[in-house]
Amino acid sequence: MALSRYSFSSRTSDSNGKEIIGISKVSYKLYQAIEGGLLSYSVHVLEEGERLDYLAGINYGDSGLWWVIAAASGIGYGLQVPPGTIIRIPSNITEAFGVLV
Fold it and tell me: pLDDT value at position 34?
């Protein structure tokens, strides 16, 4: 089972005691690591019909890790990425998780 983006999230509660899970910090940390040259990555131009979960399955063996590619690429919502979008795929998933802790 893959690590979820929620594994690295901050957890707080609202005024009613309902848990709020914030994942924007996780995405930002991963994006900043790519931008800062802390993680190696490959570049891929998204083709018609390709999705981030498909690329995650090919590159990491787990389509559930689509969020890593989305975060590394600065994409907020990974399900509607148009063809021609330049995608950055972290080369080593273990190193990518390492920058999140």
Answer: 94
Q: Per residue in 49-58, pLDDT tens?
A: 999 999 999 9
Q: 63 and 56 in contact (C-beta within 8 Å)?
A: yes
Backbone φ, ψ for residue 19 (5° rounding): -70, 135
Mean pLDDT of 74-98: 88
- Token pair for residue 97? 């998780």
The CA-atom distances, in angstroms, between 85 and each of 9, 46, 50, 77 are 27, 5, 11, 13
Region of 39 please: left (phi>0), alpha (psi -120 to 50) or beta.
beta
Residue 32: CB atoms within 10 A of its CB come to 13
**Predicted TM-score (pTM) above 0.70:** yes
Token pair in block for residue 82: 């148009």
Residue type, 79: L
Distance CA 91, CA 63 (A): 15
